[in-house]
Task: structure prediction
Amino acid sequence: MQAEALTITESLLSNAGQIGLDVVEEDALTYLRSLPGKSLNVVTSFHLVEHLSFEELIRLLDEMIRTLRSGGLLILETPNPENFMVGSYSFYADPTHRNPIPSPTLQFLLESRGLDRVTVMKLRPGTLPKSRVTPISSNALTNISTVRPTMGLWVGRFD
Result:
Protein backbone atom coordinates (compact mmCIF):
# COMPACT_ATOMS: atom_id res chain seq x y z
CA MET A 1 0.00 0.00 0.00
CA GLN A 2 1.33 3.43 -0.91
CA ALA A 3 0.98 6.02 1.83
CA GLU A 4 1.59 9.74 1.98
CA ALA A 5 1.78 11.95 5.01
CA LEU A 6 0.42 15.46 4.75
CA THR A 7 1.36 17.97 7.42
CA ILE A 8 2.37 21.55 8.05
CA THR A 9 4.24 20.74 11.25
CA GLU A 10 8.06 20.52 11.03
CA SER A 11 8.41 17.75 13.63
CA LEU A 12 5.79 15.61 11.89
CA LEU A 13 7.49 16.20 8.53
CA SER A 14 10.74 14.90 9.93
CA ASN A 15 9.20 11.91 11.74
CA ALA A 16 7.13 10.78 8.75
CA GLY A 17 10.13 11.04 6.47
CA GLN A 18 12.25 8.97 8.86
CA ILE A 19 9.82 6.03 8.66
CA GLY A 20 9.77 6.11 4.88
CA LEU A 21 6.53 7.91 4.12
CA ASP A 22 6.31 10.30 1.22
CA VAL A 23 5.76 13.60 2.98
CA VAL A 24 3.92 16.56 1.52
CA GLU A 25 3.97 19.96 3.22
CA GLU A 26 0.66 21.42 2.13
CA ASP A 27 -2.67 22.72 3.34
CA ALA A 28 -5.04 19.73 3.55
CA LEU A 29 -7.81 21.32 1.48
CA THR A 30 -5.40 22.47 -1.24
CA TYR A 31 -3.81 19.04 -1.40
CA LEU A 32 -7.11 17.15 -1.61
CA ARG A 33 -8.36 19.51 -4.33
CA SER A 34 -5.29 18.61 -6.42
CA LEU A 35 -6.23 14.91 -6.43
CA PRO A 36 -8.56 13.20 -8.87
CA GLY A 37 -11.93 12.06 -7.56
CA LYS A 38 -12.25 8.56 -6.13
CA SER A 39 -8.47 8.14 -6.01
CA LEU A 40 -7.90 7.26 -2.34
CA ASN A 41 -8.63 4.10 -0.36
CA VAL A 42 -8.19 5.73 3.05
CA VAL A 43 -8.17 9.30 4.35
CA THR A 44 -7.21 9.94 7.96
CA SER A 45 -7.29 13.15 9.94
CA PHE A 46 -6.12 13.33 13.53
CA HIS A 47 -6.92 16.44 15.53
CA LEU A 48 -7.51 18.74 12.58
CA VAL A 49 -11.25 19.37 12.26
CA GLU A 50 -11.55 21.15 15.63
CA HIS A 51 -9.18 23.83 14.31
CA LEU A 52 -11.44 24.78 11.38
CA SER A 53 -14.34 27.15 10.97
CA PHE A 54 -17.64 25.47 10.13
CA GLU A 55 -17.34 26.54 6.48
CA GLU A 56 -13.78 25.16 6.25
CA LEU A 57 -14.92 21.92 7.89
CA ILE A 58 -17.66 21.43 5.29
CA ARG A 59 -15.25 22.11 2.41
CA LEU A 60 -12.70 19.68 3.87
CA LEU A 61 -15.29 16.92 4.41
CA ASP A 62 -16.57 17.39 0.86
CA GLU A 63 -13.06 17.00 -0.54
CA MET A 64 -12.30 13.99 1.65
CA ILE A 65 -15.46 12.30 0.44
CA ARG A 66 -14.87 13.31 -3.20
CA THR A 67 -11.40 11.73 -3.20
CA LEU A 68 -12.47 8.46 -1.52
CA ARG A 69 -13.04 5.42 -3.69
CA SER A 70 -16.27 3.49 -3.30
CA GLY A 71 -15.86 1.41 -0.15
CA GLY A 72 -13.05 3.69 1.05
CA LEU A 73 -12.41 4.48 4.68
CA LEU A 74 -12.46 7.91 6.33
CA ILE A 75 -11.03 8.13 9.85
CA LEU A 76 -11.41 11.36 11.82
CA GLU A 77 -10.19 11.85 15.37
CA THR A 78 -11.15 14.90 17.39
CA PRO A 79 -11.44 15.67 21.12
CA ASN A 80 -14.67 14.39 22.63
CA PRO A 81 -16.58 17.32 24.16
CA GLU A 82 -19.05 14.89 25.77
CA ASN A 83 -16.32 14.19 28.29
CA PHE A 84 -16.65 16.82 31.02
CA MET A 85 -12.90 17.50 31.35
CA VAL A 86 -12.41 17.78 27.60
CA GLY A 87 -15.53 19.86 26.90
CA SER A 88 -15.03 22.28 29.77
CA TYR A 89 -11.27 22.45 30.18
CA SER A 90 -8.62 20.62 28.17
CA PHE A 91 -10.10 21.48 24.76
CA TYR A 92 -9.42 25.15 25.45
CA ALA A 93 -5.81 24.56 26.52
CA ASP A 94 -4.94 24.74 22.80
CA PRO A 95 -5.58 28.33 21.69
CA THR A 96 -5.84 27.22 18.05
CA HIS A 97 -8.94 25.09 18.74
CA ARG A 98 -12.04 26.76 17.26
CA ASN A 99 -15.06 24.78 18.40
CA PRO A 100 -15.58 21.37 19.95
CA ILE A 101 -17.52 19.11 17.60
CA PRO A 102 -19.93 16.70 19.32
CA SER A 103 -19.90 13.25 17.72
CA PRO A 104 -23.61 13.38 16.73
CA THR A 105 -22.90 16.62 14.86
CA LEU A 106 -19.92 15.18 13.00
CA GLN A 107 -21.87 12.00 12.26
CA PHE A 108 -24.77 14.07 10.85
CA LEU A 109 -22.40 16.12 8.69
CA LEU A 110 -20.78 12.99 7.26
CA GLU A 111 -24.09 11.26 6.57
CA SER A 112 -25.64 14.38 5.06
CA ARG A 113 -22.63 14.67 2.73
CA GLY A 114 -23.28 11.16 1.41
CA LEU A 115 -21.31 8.75 3.59
CA ASP A 116 -23.09 5.69 4.86
CA ARG A 117 -22.11 3.26 7.62
CA VAL A 118 -20.74 6.06 9.80
CA THR A 119 -19.56 4.67 13.12
CA VAL A 120 -18.52 6.69 16.17
CA MET A 121 -15.92 5.02 18.35
CA LYS A 122 -15.15 6.64 21.69
CA LEU A 123 -11.63 5.35 22.22
CA ARG A 124 -10.46 7.26 25.29
CA PRO A 125 -12.38 7.96 28.47
CA GLY A 126 -10.63 11.33 28.73
CA THR A 127 -10.09 11.44 32.47
CA LEU A 128 -7.03 13.19 33.82
CA PRO A 129 -4.34 10.98 35.34
CA LYS A 130 -4.41 11.18 39.14
CA SER A 131 -0.95 12.73 39.18
CA ARG A 132 -2.31 15.83 37.42
CA VAL A 133 -5.27 16.36 39.75
CA THR A 134 -4.56 18.57 42.76
CA PRO A 135 -7.35 18.68 45.33
CA ILE A 136 -8.03 22.11 46.84
CA SER A 137 -9.88 22.48 50.12
CA SER A 138 -12.88 24.80 50.27
CA ASN A 139 -11.04 26.81 52.98
CA ALA A 140 -8.19 27.55 50.58
CA LEU A 141 -10.62 28.96 48.02
CA THR A 142 -12.07 31.45 50.51
CA ASN A 143 -8.58 32.80 51.32
CA ILE A 144 -7.54 33.83 47.81
CA SER A 145 -6.19 37.36 47.93
CA THR A 146 -5.31 37.87 44.25
CA VAL A 147 -6.06 35.90 41.13
CA ARG A 148 -5.09 37.04 37.66
CA PRO A 149 -5.22 35.27 34.29
CA THR A 150 -1.85 34.70 32.61
CA MET A 151 -1.94 33.07 29.16
CA GLY A 152 -4.83 30.82 30.18
CA LEU A 153 -3.15 29.84 33.44
CA TRP A 154 -4.69 31.11 36.65
CA VAL A 155 -2.05 32.36 39.10
CA GLY A 156 -3.21 32.79 42.67
CA ARG A 157 -1.68 33.63 46.02
CA PHE A 158 -3.07 31.97 49.11
CA ASP A 159 -2.70 33.82 52.43
Q: What stands out?
A: DSSP finds six helices and six strands in the chain. The chain has a mean pLDDT of 75.
